[in-house]
Every structure is written in structure tokens, then in C-alpha cells.
């Protein structure tokens, strides 16, 4: 009879700790949702800047920038990629490109598209002949010093972005020569790259990890718009990417509406 008590007690303890766990989980979940919402607001600001820059540089290609960009960048139905990125890298906004970085990137993309020449590197304060951080490599990015207040909308001055360099998150792309991340448009497929040991290529992209830096792994996507150099970044023909980190077999429609 006496034996029953400790068992009952443990059951009660177990139950109450289970309740505690449930409670903590829902707290964490709502905190997480708040944080995701905040970052999504920042990402939306970023894609608005992108949209603005893009339509001013690519006016001949984009018929209806507002609709196109809403279709390309309205991630509101699935923010899982953002939550996953936050979990591995913390304050994602320190890694998001500012207007100045986006402008530099798009200038380069359109210059290249117009001249048909091979990619020239984008020289800037973070990545140039005298300084080349790990985040300058394709598929990698760094953080802005968190004590510095950065204006995302500043389109003239590129911020110093040199700390905590890491591989680009899934669902984002990190071009060579810039140390920041941009979200991949919907319809693009931007998983983490995997090293093919035979070819030393970071697949499904076409870049190589830097020679002589064994600790530098393949990162994330390095491109989105200049598909000439890697067609894989868009969903393969006959598949449909409901988010930028999933690939589902399906019809077309999402393939290339967004190509410049
Ligand atoms: C988004 O941009 C607006 C100005 O265009 C600014 O007022 C707002 O604070 C920004 N939101 C975030 C979350 O950065
Ligand atoms: C994004 O899509 C959601 C529904 O899918 C819609 O409610 C929202 O207004 C859209 N956002 C913008 C900026 O158009
Ligand atoms: C190259 O990088 C260094 C270090 O950040 C910087 O001081 C210098 O201004 C950069 N040069 C150019 C041409 O951007
Ligand atoms: C690596 O690349 C080679 C040559 O393109 C290919 O045959 C092979 O299947 C790739 N390996 C993996 C693991 O994908
Ligand atoms: C590479 O990583 C190992 C283990 O983390 C470390 O001991 C080594 O110093 C690193 N090498 C370089 C060149 O950073």
C-alpha cells in the first residue's frame, strides 16, 4: 500500500512537469513567431528595395513590377525558411543586404547581361584586392557589427560587414564579392550546396570552394538572376518549388516569369 504513494507522486510530478514543458513550448513558439514576424518585416523592406532597384534597371523586361515582385517575394504563406535561418544564425537582419549592396549587385548583373561578358568581381569595402573575407566567397555571408546602427535603405554607402562569416542560409543567395544575403525569389530553388568530391564543385551550383582553405565549406546559393552560369537555381523543368527550400514535381508556370 505504501508503495503506491511514491508512484502516485511521481505521476503527479511527471504530469506537472509535462504541463510545464507544454507551457514553455507555447511561450517559445509565440516568441519565435514574433521574431519571425519582425524579420519578415525587414525582409519585406529589403525586397521592396530590390524591386525598386530592379525595375529601375530592367525596365525593358518587367511588365508589371508590382505584381511580379509580389509574386516573387511574398513569402507570407510560408516563413519556415526564415525561422530556420534565425535558429542557426541568430539576428538574420545583420546579414541582409542593404540598398547599396543590392544596387551594386544588380548593376553588375545587368552590366554582365548587356555586355555578355564573364562575371567580373564586385569591388567594395568588404571584398576587394587587398581584403577578401570568407564571406566574399560565393554562398557565404558575414554580419555587420551588432553595435552599429545600419540603415537598410541607404543606397550609397556599403556598410562594413566583416564578422561571424558563415554559409548562406537555405532560401537565400549570397553572391561572390559581397558579404550579405538576399532572399531567393519564389520559384527559385536555393538549397545548401554539397561538395562533389570528384569535381570539387558545390552542387547544385557551379562554384568551387576556395583552394587552400580546407575549413571553408560549400555554402548556400551564390546566384539567382545570372542563370547563365547555373541553370539549376531555378526549379528543374517539370518541377515546382512552393518555397525556396522545397522542390515538388509538377507543371510549369513558375519557371522563368521572373528572369530579367
Ligand atoms: C521598413 O521601412 C520603413 C520605411 O520605409 C521603416 O519605417 C520601417 O521601420 C522598416 N521596418 C523594419 C522592420 O525595418
Ligand atoms: C501577400 O500574400 C498574402 C496572402 O497570400 C496577402 O494577404 C498579402 O496582402 C500579400 N502581401 C502583399 C504585400 O501584397
Ligand atoms: C578594400 O578593403 C579595405 C578594407 O576594408 C578598405 O579599407 C578599402 O577601402 C577597400 N578598397 C576599395 C577600393 O574599396
Ligand atoms: C560528381 O560529379 C560527377 C561528374 O559530373 C558526377 O558523375 C557524379 O555523379 C557527381 N557525384 C555526386 C555524388 O553527385
Ligand atoms: C581548421 O579547423 C580546425 C578545427 O576546427 C582548426 O584546428 C584549424 O586551426 C583550422 N585551420 C585553419 C587554417 O583555420
Describe the protein's architecture and organization.
The protein is built from 4 helices and 8 strands. It has 260 residues and is an alpha+beta fold. The chain has one domain (4-249). A two-stranded antiparallel sheet has the order 1-2. α1 (4-57) packs antiparallel against α2 and α1 (4-57) packs across α4 (99-115). Keywords: Signal. Residues 1-24 form the signal peptide.
Brief summary:
Residues 1-24 form the signal peptide. By secondary structure, the chain is of the alpha+beta class.
Give the termini distance in whole angstroms: 79 Å
Q: Which range best describes the helical content: under 10%, 10-25%, 25-40%, 40-55%, 55-70% or over 70%?
A: 25-40%
Q: How many separate domains?
A: 1
Mean pLDDT: 73
Q: Please indicate the percent range of residues in DSSP E strands (runs of 2 or more).
A: 5-15%
Which of globular, elongated, flat, extended, rod-shaped describes the shape? globular
The multimeric state of the shown protein is single chain
Q: Which sequence of SSEs, written as H and E, runs from N to C?
A: HHHHEEEEEEEE
Low-confidence stretches: 1-25, 59-63, 225-241, 249-260
What is the CA-based Rg, rounded? 22 Å
Largest sheet: 2 strands, antiparallel
Structural class: alpha+beta
The largest beta-sheet arranges its strands as 1-2
Number of strands: 8
Q: Which molecules are bound in this entry?
A: 2-acetamido-2-deoxy-beta-D-glucopyranose
How many DSSP helices? 4
